[in-house]
Amino acid sequence: MDDPPGLIPPHGGYRKLRSFQAAQLVYDLTVAFCDRFIDRRSRTHDQMVQAARSGVQNIAEGSMASATSRKTELKLTGVARASLEELLLDYEDFLRQRGLARWPKDSTGAIELRKFFLSDQSDESDRSDKKAACTLANSGPEEAANALICLVNQASFLLHKQLQYLEGKFLSEGGFSERLYRQRRLRRDGS
Q: Are the C-beta atoms of residues 110 and 146 closer than 8 Å to each other?
């Protein structure tokens, strides 16, 4: 008989998640964007940076919590996505309040940015996507905000897919309490 899987399953590994990489890129670029285009003393500056940071941090925290609570992992991944939605609204407000154009979803700029981002399946040692995207921080406010809207949408899409995967995994494997019960029963029945 095979040994049952351990009580504490493998967890973490969030740095390899494309959702984490996308959210981290959004965070880095949001800091640069806010420093350039939003008064540092304004509440909006702080809120945008914090929303972007929350996206990154909640992915990491959820991934680490997954060892003992899939429910917490699902919740924190959802919080990460909600934080990015808040950030998305801030970028849309930025464009609207300044009378700047928002790229349609099928615009050349939006399509090129999505293709670029999706085509880079590099590992953590290759920072080409970050270097190229950071050049957007040197563009004008309209282009930078639209590029960040595209990146936020991409990160949100990846988190949506991640949530679907986590939901399926929870439904098929259960959570920590169920593993505790199975392990206790196996031990009790085996002795």
A: yes
Look at residue 125 in the predicted model and tell me its pLDDT.
44
Q: What are the structure tokens assigned to 181, written together?
A: 């019960």
CATH of the domain at 60: 1.20.1440.60
Q: Whole-angstrom Cα distance, residue 145 to residue 134?
A: 13
Segments forming the whole domain that contains residue 156: 15-117+142-190
Q: Looking at this protein, which amino acid is placed at residue 74?
A: L
How far is 8 from 180, CA to CA, in rounded Å? 9
How far apart (Å, rounded) are the C-alpha atoms in residues 165 and 103? 30
Instruction: Please tell me whether the overall predicted TM-score, pTM, comes out greater than 0.85 for this model.
Output: no
What are the angstrom distances between the C-alpha of 52 and each of 32, 58, 114, 144?
12, 10, 19, 15
Structural domain total, the chain: 1
pLDDT attached to residue 23:
96
Phi and psi of 175, rounded to 5°?
A: -115, -170
**Segment 40-60 mean pLDDT:** 97
Residues with Cβ within 8 Å of residue 15, at least 6 apart in sequence: 21, 124
Residues in Cβ contact with 60 at an 8 Å cutoff, skipping those fewer than 6 apart: 14, 20
Average pLDDT for 16-34: 95
